[in-house]
Specification:
219 residues; elongated; five-stranded antiparallel sheet; Alpha-Beta Plaits; 47% helix; alpha+beta
Length: 219
């Protein structure tokens, strides 16, 4: 063995074999575990994407099992007041913006949308502050009305958020301060509108004439 290593070919062969052994060891110790980790990460990403898709579907069609009792009438009135109450909406937005250290920039209502038993009032709101504070502000708005253990919990008016757009802040402020333009929807109760009664003047003339003739016919 020693004689083989003393020859040039033997030394070259030993170097080649040693290199192959090092590469094999590197494969089993470094590359193979990384491939396994990458496969696990890919599985986790696929599972997260599936969960995100399910959550998006759930948010697109929100539903909740609620047991409403006659004693909950006060809470229902609080969540869906009888009028839009723009002054109350302004106070809610201003109070929650101040709680989350946000600069309340503006609010502008749009044309209300009449639904079945409710009135939806869209509002374009602009606030400015840190991203985390803006996220908590939106969460506080939606948490004013929740369902806990199948019971309604209303601490204010019912709001929903349909649009959030981040922009550069005003007054030359820099990151992490951002400006958020948000579309909120405030809801109020609206009694269903009954169908209009038929106008007697629109009764076909032929029907009246037929009735008159029939009344004057001698048996």
């Amino acid at each position: 063995m020693r004689t083989l290593l003393d020859s040039p070919k033997g030394r070259i062969g030993a170097v080649v074999v040693g290199g192959l052994l090092i590469m094999a060891a590197a494969w089993f110790l470094l590359i193979s575990p990384q491939k396994s980790t990458a496969a696990e990460l890919e599985t986790q990403v696929s599972a997260s994407r599936a969960e995100l898709s399910q959550r998006r579907l759930a948010l697109a069609r929100p539903s909740a099992s609620v047991n409403v009792k006659p004693s909950d009438l006060y809470l229902l009135t609080k969540a869906l007041p009888n009028d839009p109450g723009m002054s109350e909406i302004l106070l809610d937005v201003n109070r929650l913006a101040a709680r989350n250290a946000l600069d309340f920039r503006s609010i502008a209502p749009s044309a209300p949308v009449l639904g079945t038993g409710y009135l939806q009032q869209p509002l374009d709101v602009a606030v400015q502050g840190r991203f985390g504070d803006i996220s908590r502000f939106l969460g506080d708005l939606r948490a004013l009305v929740t369902v806990r253990n199948k019971r309604l919990d209303a601490r204010g008016r019912l709001y929903s958020v349909t649009r959030v757009e981040m922009k550069e802040p005003e007054n030359l402020k820099k990151f992490p301060i951002v400006k958020a333009e948000v579309t909120l929807n405030a809801y109020s109760f609206s009694a269903p509108v009954p169908p209009p009664a038929p106008d007697p003047s629109t009764t076909p003339a032929g029907s009246a004439q037929s009735g008159t003739v029939a009344a004057g016919v001698t048996p």
